[in-house]
Protein 1
Amino acid sequence: MTIKFKRNPFLLFLPFLLYYVYYILKHKWPVLYGDEPRYIGFAENLLHGFYSPPAPGINLWNGPGYPIALMPCAALHLPVIFYPLFNALFYYLSIVFLYKALTCVAHERIALFFAIIWAFYFNIYTYLPAVLTEIFSAFLISAFVYSVVLFYKGGKIKHLILSGFLLGFLALTKIIFGYVLLGGLLVCLVLLIFGKAKRNYQSSLYIILIAFITTTPYLVYTYSLTGRFFYWGNSGGMSLYWMSTPDNLEYGDWKLPGLTNLMSPQPFNTTEGDSLLKANHSAEIASILKHQGVEQDDLFKKAAIRNIRSAPKKFIKNYFYNLSRMLFDFPYSYSYQIPQTITNIITGSLVFWAGIMALIVSVINWRSINYALKFVMLIFVLYFFISGLVSAYARQFDVMIPVVLFWIAYMADKLPKVNLRFITEPVRE
């Protein structure tokens, strides 16, 4: 019985599912907050046969991936608490799939150790009680990693199709992955032409093409609404606008259209932040907000491009501020320092330096590395650096922690054992 329990990850990690349910019940707000009503609203729209209102009030603020996952709750008219309870299941399954992926490339003890690290990754606990995309995205990422490992291990078509579907559904959930798919497609085509391991590159290309096929119905739908090819959503313009801000005291983090500083973590807020935001942006924002939907998105993009051309060095600084926020949750515009920042910096630093060590080992042993890991890391690297081009936060990095842990665990498994004890020398008389 004990051996069966250890070999079955669904049983092994079951206590975490129970704990996550408890955590959600304890911390869920009694009302919907922030972006939560929008996701539930989109799920209800899908049940009624449409996604966005027609022009001019087109609303494609996010993709339909997460709302599709919420449709059962919306169809059954379940109380609000049931929506985040699905997060407990998604997080639990992400641990199971990460563990199963790790057991394919590393020893069982290492697989268990890194799966437990993910299970106790407290930074993402913030999103457990929330009806937001982070936990669901982490589940899709873990499942994607596992399916890619299975495909490159066994070569079965069903795992190839599943890998492409999961990657495509991830793009529908976080539309930034739509551009990751495009970047991955270009990289795989170049490698297919000039690289040596053409069979591997061809398989990667198939996975990406299947992902594009998965997203095609949504892209056809956005084309029918907007008349634009490869149009993923109308939230990118505002995000790019804030990321491109030329003002020295602003670091590229997103702000509310009402020009308040409430989007920063609330304990960070300074009293003068709102007045400075209004002084820097009120005229331009007011002008843009007179328009709706796609037209508004276009105007934000034009303003962002103008900002980038007028202050390219500041844009580069904001880009690195974005990468810093993803890793360390710092800095924020017009914000105080709080003790929580220390925790974020420590967590981010541990991941960062472990990643640097794994990178060094990867470069030295590049030809010997499992190709499944190479492909997964290609997706991660593209996602990380493309995310820096718009307002970025720690939650955008947190969802990719399963990939980072998979990479570090693989490298740790291949390293020789390190003995920290001195060799005992014979006593000299």
Note: The chain has 19 helices and no strands.
Protein 2
Amino acid sequence: MNFINTLKDIWKIEELKNKILLTLGLIAVYRFMAGVPLPGIDPLQLAALKDSTQGGLLGLLNAFTGGAFSRASIMALGIMPYISASIVVQLMGIAVPYLQKLQKDGESGRKKITQITRWLTILITMVQGPTYITAIKTQFGLPAEAFLVTGPTFWISSMILLTAGTIFAMWLGERITDKGVGNGISLLITVGIIANFPAAFLQEFFAKTTNAGAGGIMMILIEIIIWFVVILLSVYLVTAVRKIAVQYARRTVAGNIQNVAGSREYIPLKLNAAGVMPIIFAQAIMFLPAYIGQKYPALAELQDINGLWYNVLFAFLIIVFSYFYTAITIPTNKMAEDLKRSGGFIPGIRPGKDTADRLDTVLSRITFPGSLFLAGLSILPAIVVQFGVQQSWALFYGGTSLIIMVGVAIDTIQQVNSYLLNRHYDSLMKTGTSNRKSSK
């Protein structure tokens, strides 16, 4: 009943309703474009490409693009070049003084960084585009009849359309962020992941109900219960924070000349401050062990994404990259300086370097269990596969896909709740104003 009332409240707020409708409309456009194949490719001859993108990094890319990667769509690269460009710019911001200056310039600096990211996205697309075209022609075993057009015409048209598709996806994501609800880029990725959900579930359902000894409906129910438990754990991982108490000796209340002495607040340090980035980095690095496994038969197990040593190495890399990415994205020294300038301090800790050391120590301590938790969720799909779960359905039991979906869902719900909360306060203010007028 509360859910229905919330939907009614949402529909009553004209601005929020328009934002949601705009978001849904742009997402529908993105999904439609993801189904349009590159000119010169027969979509009925892509079985080998779909088989090659069932797992590993290719499976992750295919999930992020909602299957466009395996359909040789004009949106095959999707938003991934933009994500790559954002990561590169973020990492370069640590070492490049110009980018460091832009990060401190406020809104104007943010706009310039966004423009740099856009141009870098185009450059990355121009590198990934030919790689993708070469791969579908030579590495995925597509039959010759899959290519209706060959030669320079196919290459040039495909390159133009792949680049245009990425730019269009980037534009859609930015429009959703600016005019809609939620983070546009993350929503497009999430919608792409969810698009694979019905087919994956149906495949698992038919496998369990049609094969003798597979468990039938009871096994499906058990899998769904376990899946919900994993989702709850993922929610905990995304939302868990360690609150560091902060005291302000003297602060001025906005709109009032009074000073508040001894006010107490908190610095929230997230258990998983790195998000899904450690998984993405680790997935990229795992290409190297897979290549080594191809060259040396004794290490062939490194090619198996469901194998023991592959997942041990994968989990180790996730833990390492969790510390690395947290260290470069959470500037404890800057946090300590900002706290000192605003007149705040951690009780019992001296401002400045001691505060920075304290924040760094706490962050390191909570990153360890957070990274273990993240690594465990990431290798969970490989574990459930050993119990007879289909690979496509197992991907929803953890890893990047599930954590992104949970994080985006929480972020979007929080934005909607903020609109509802503002509406509630507005109604209270209007009621109070009308009451005062009536009393006069």
Note: Residues 247 and 345 are 5 Å apart (CA to CA).
Protein 3
Amino acid sequence: MAVETLTLGKALNTGLRRAMERDDKVILMGEDIGKLGGVFRITDGLQKDFGEERVIDTPLAESGIIGTAIGLALRGYRPVCEIQFDGFVYPAYDQIVSQVAKFRYRSRGHVNLPMVIRIPFGGGIGAVEHHSESPEAYFAHTAGLKVVACSNPEDAYFMIQQAIASEDPVIFLEPKRRYWEKGAVDTALGLDAVTPLHSSRVVRAGTDATVLAYGPMVKTALDAATAAQEDGRSLEVIDLRSLSPMDLAPVFDSVRRTGRLVVVHEAPGNLGMGSEIAARVTEECFYSLEAPVLRVAGYNTPYPASRLEEEYLPDLDRVLDAVDRSFGW
């Protein structure tokens, strides 16, 4: 046992370090990730220890970062690209969708692109425009990409290593407002001893209703479950973890027992992840549902100025209100 208490950000840093120690083909690329250690200090100290050839400060050109990483991956490297903020990923969107996602398909399975694109996502840090986006649905909709979101230090540490070890391109979403939250991580465990990368997980057992979330909203869902317990309601909370592919078997099992499902995410509800989940759960669990699948999401507007973001973001009260509405059917 080597249990350490780490912040989510430090867990990512440690996971990146382990992957680089394990495989010298792993290289990091991104704006200000070297000497500065990244704007959130996720790569702090790595350039000093691994050198400028493996931790590369790139120009401010996201399309160039991803395009270069594609070439490196084709030549046997495992690039890990950092997109400094979620809203900066769009200049690279063409490369990701047109090239990264399609290489295996267009080569009939002969060419892999083992690369990871790290994206700090979501709001809650009082940032300015383009710094608090939730772009996950764009990527989950795109065939050929795998998309995952960590929510706690333990998952951050193991999932980043699992993503780097994958033979497929992985969009790795990091909840930036949770970077400084702490948790226990057993760094002695091997990757084969922890939850597989593309598996969801029940993080709190319950009997009366199911709440499904991912990334930054998992803590919000857990807080809602704690509050609901005071009113005599037992909420089961599931962390989706993988957005593409989705592991919904634990969700189906839970809904068949509780009869109710509330899906929570920061991104706007219009054509968001919650829509697809609601459709699949309705198809699989129709006769078990006591109420429609309800969604708690961001509003269908651009992300607001920081002084208004608490009005925009799903919070404990909105989750509990959805649970109440579910019981009202």
Note: The two ends are 48 Å apart (CA to CA).
